[in-house]
């Protein structure tokens, strides 16, 4: 599986609403809105994050390990036409992502505890998940919910996103639950600003963003949302 990985740079920042308005105004005149966004320039993301019996993904992140991974099921606009099981791999400031499509029936089977649907020898990711669920008790942990405003630039394959209204599903783990009312996970004045790129950021985008003036932070949405469920002091974020 590793020989297919394409690692990219990932930079994350917490910004306030005023900074968001300034950055958005600059970007809108320079690069394009992602084609998947709606007429408001946004789409909704809901992810279900998994962790094992040792909470390895949480512990590795809080421990600052250079190499770590997270598993999640992701949907868009609370629809079931596109469902992916993803593995996000982090290595220092670089990320890579592997994903496989799920059907709604497969999702329902996984949530019912029937992990045999992942026993697919032709899919290395599904087999990895299957073994993780059987041997390490990988299980659903928390729903992460937010609105994304995405921009793209083909030069350098740059992707810039504003993630707003970050919410946690608390103890609920069904991303299709119509009665789910996730609660805010960070102050409403804050937005997570992310910049992803392959080898370089074009100079005109660098000048517009002035990244060196922003407060770069470790902004793990999974960890932020998991803190609402913490039962041990080591889980503090």
Report what the structure shows.
- It contains six helices and ten strands, in the order βαββαβββααββββαα.
- The chain is α+β, with helices and mostly antiparallel strands and 237 residues long.
- It has an eight-stranded antiparallel β-barrel with strand order 1-6-5-4-3-7-8-10, surrounded by four helices.
- A hairpin with a 4-residue loop joins strand 7 (139-153) and strand 8.
- 26% of the residues are buried.
* Series of H and E elements: EHEEHEEEHHEEEEHH
Summarize the amount of helix as a percent range: 10-25%
Order of neighbouring strands in the sheet with most strands: 1-6-5-4-3-7-8-10
- Structural class call reads alpha+beta
Low-confidence runs (pLDDT<50, min 5 residues)? none
How many strand units?
10
Biggest sheet details: 8 strands, antiparallel, barrel
Distance between the termini: 32 Å
Q: What's the gyration radius in Å?
A: 18 Å
The fraction of residues in strands falls at 35-45%
Helix tally?
6
Nearest-integer average pLDDT: 91
Q: Which word captures the global form? A: globular
Pfam families: VTC (PF09359)
Domain VTC: 7-229
Protein name: Molecular chaperone
Q: How would you summarize what this structure contains?
A:
This protein is an alpha+beta fold and 237 residues long. It is built from six helices and ten strands, in the order βαββαβββααββββαα.
Task: For this entry, give a set of tags.
237 residues; alpha+beta; 35% strand; globular
Secondary structure layout:
Layout: E1 8-16, H1 17-28, E2 32-33, E3 43-51, H2 56-62, E4 67-76, E5 83-91, E6 94-101, H3 104-111, H4 124-135, E7 139-153, E8 158-168, E9 183-184, E10 190-197, H5 203-209, H6 221-226
Antiparallel strand pairs: 1-6, 1-10, 2-7, 3-4, 3-7, 4-5, 5-6, 7-8, 8-9, 8-10
Domain VTC: 7-229
Pfam family, one: VTC
Organism: Paenibacillus odorifer
